[in-house]
Design brief:
It is a single chain. 27% of the residues lie in helices and 21% in strands. Among the domains are: 19-68, no CATH class; 91-187 and 245-260, Aminomethyltransferase beta-barrel domains (Alpha-Beta Plaits), CATH 3.30.70. By secondary structure, it is α+β, with helices and mostly antiparallel strands. One of its GO terms (cellular component) is nucleolar ribonuclease P complex.
Length: 289
């Protein structure tokens, strides 16, 4: 009786993995992707999460305030060295089409009375970035949507141009709705439904096969140890992954694409910012076909 009682009282083996197993690359990436289903992480999230108090705003997980007193260090970096800020949570809308048609319709949502416009020569060439306030179509000076920054892709000889407009995530839906109305863009007939947020096929295989105790788990794949999961994030904090991300117009020929989280954006502040970029970026050699 005592032996039977001991068997019943024996604790079941814990199903939770040990820390070493949880910290394996394939398990860690799978866990990170699962935690990003509600609030999207930036590329620098891991670095910020170790040093900042994180907050959830506008569908993202952002660093709010540092855990240590680093105000003097930041001020010293801005005045004497270089300070980098991650602004990748800002939303980017790409407009593609004929230059004349783009300028004609964009003139309805801005005014020359406020200063710079999309038609400014220095910005139109693609050398400089511009900033302005957008309004609802033909409603200036009322119904202001908010401030944006923009940059043109330099001319390549064709009449088609590309324009990138950056805005705060809180203003994205209103501005996107107004741009689609101005350019008469319609929803696509077939909405592309992406794959769910997973790491790779190997994760599914690993969950199906229960490894035996006391033996090392090996991934059943042709690539072997080289088969590592890929960080795959679909959608962003301001767009559902099952919504469309591109709209076209049959009348104007303009295509609006949502490039949020596809183009990273960083801000460098300080006198050594140019030196940091010079040492980091290497100019590519020109290849003519």
């Amino acid at each position: 009786k005592q032996a039977e009682k001991a068997v019943h009282q024996k604790k079941e083996q814990s199903k939770t993995k040990c820390r070493k197993a949880r910290r394996r690359h394939i398990n860690l990436v799978a866990e990170f992707n699962r935690r990003q289903r509600k609030n999207i992480w930036l590329e620098t999230h891991i670095w910020h999460a170790k040093r900042f108090h994180m907050v959830k705003k506008w569908g993202y997980c952002l660093g709010d305030s540092p855990t240590e007193k680093s105000y003097r260090a930041c001020y010293r970096a801005m005045t004497k060295h270089c300070l980098l800020q991650d602004l990748s949570y800002y939303c980017c809308l790409e407009l593609t089409g004929k230059e004349n048609e783009l300028l004609k319709q964009l003139a309805r949502i801005c005014s020359i009375d406020t200063g710079l416009t999309f038609e400014d020569a220095c910005c139109l060439s693609g050398r400089f970035e511009g900033s302005l306030n957008l309004y609802r179509a033909d409603r200036y000076p009322e119904d202001m949507l908010g401030p944006v920054t923009f940059i043109w892709k330099p001319r390549d000889g064709s009449e088609n141009r590309q324009l990138w407009i950056w805005m705060h995530p809180a203003l994205k839906q209103d501005m996107l709705r107004e741009l689609k109305a101005v350019f008469q863009c319609s929803e696509p007939e077939e909405i592309h439904i992406p794959e769910p947020i997973t790491t790779s096929v190997q994760d599914k295989k690993q969950t199906d096969v229960v490894p035996s105790l006391g033996k090392k788990r090996k991934m059943e794949d042709k690539e072997g140890e080289k088969a590592v999961p890929v960080k795959k994030i679909i959608g962003d904090g301001t767009r559902d992954p099952f919504q469309s991300y591109s709209w076209s117009s049959q009348t104007t020929g303009i295509v609006i694409s949502d490039r949020t989280m596809e183009i990273l954006r960083y801000r460098l502040i300080g006198p050594l910012s140019h030196s940091v970029l010079t040492e980091t970026l290497k100019a590519a050699s020109l290849q003519t076909v």
